[in-house]
Amino acid sequence: MQISTLQFQPRPIPTLFLLLILLPLFLSLGFWQLDRAQQKRTTANTMETRRKLPPLIVSEQPLTAEEIEFRTLSVSGQFVPAGQLLITNRKHLGKPGYHVITPLRLQGSNRHLLVNRGWVAAVNNHPPAIETPTGPITLSGETNIPSPPAIELEFDLHNSILWPFLTLENYRAWSGLDIFPFVILQSPDSPHGFVRAWASARPGEGMHLGYAIQWFAFGLLSLALWLRLSLTRLSSLVTAKENR
């Protein structure tokens, strides 16, 4: 009679591939997604806390973007039309248009604060005429730190006021102005703005948690596959004596 048994005999190549490549890769990706989820959670808590604070009046005191991100600011000064530009390919309710970025020179100062005044519709695929007051004004808005897209395409920032995206570094090089290290998204109740439907949703962490579970599951599957490949079936022949 033939009897089969399973014996654990790990093979060198699959074992090295699992221990040196697959498991470290899947575990690192899983913990990275957990870290991203924690970052989103921290950002959401900071956003909720700072949005409840009263407006901060901007003056000459130094302000860092990280300390006041999501805070509502109140600022007085004058718009500088010569420093105005338009951010292209911005849509509102499915319609193409632009975001209007105008520098505001602080009252009694040479420092400037960039103000996103909102969305304007394109006219026959061209920018409309933008009215910009030159007298003293006071407005409010939430602090925002603009960043380039994941794939940053180069463009000629010196020969056009139409930009695909805004970064503070590019604006400083283009304008030569002394600007604060953030932009404010002008509040809907402030004057001389346009359509201001700013996103205010809490940053979600669920997507990152889902990705983390997925990567850890891949690690378990690779471990299970390695165990299956490490089991070898052995057969032995057994002779039985008949009872007399």
What would you say this structure looks like, in words?
The protein has helices at 12-51, 65-68, 168-175, 206-230, and strands at 2-8, 56-57, 72-79, 85-92, 95-106, 112-121, 136-144, 162-163, 179-186, 231-237. The model has no long low-confidence stretch (mean pLDDT 87). It has a five-stranded mixed barrel. The chain has a two-stranded antiparallel ribbon with strand order 1-10. The chain has four helices and ten strands; from the N terminus they run βαβαββββββαβαβ. The radius of gyration is 30 Å and the shape is elongated.
Summarize the structure.
This protein has 244 residues and is α/β, with parallel strands linked by helices. The protein has 4 helices and 10 strands, in the order βαβαββββββαβαβ.
Radius of gyration: 30 Å
- Strand order within the widest sheet? 3-5-6-9-7
Number of helices in the DSSP assignment: 4
> SSE order, as H and E?
EHEHEEEEEEHEHE
Number of β-strand runs: 10
- Beta-strand portion reads 25-35%
Oligomer: single chain
Query: What is the mean pLDDT?
Result: 87
| Amino-to-carboxy terminus distance | 19 Å
Which residues form runs of ≥5 with pLDDT under 50? none
Helix content class: 25-40%
Overall geometric form: elongated
Largest sheet: 5 strands, mixed, barrel
Structural class designation:
alpha/beta
The domain count comes to 2
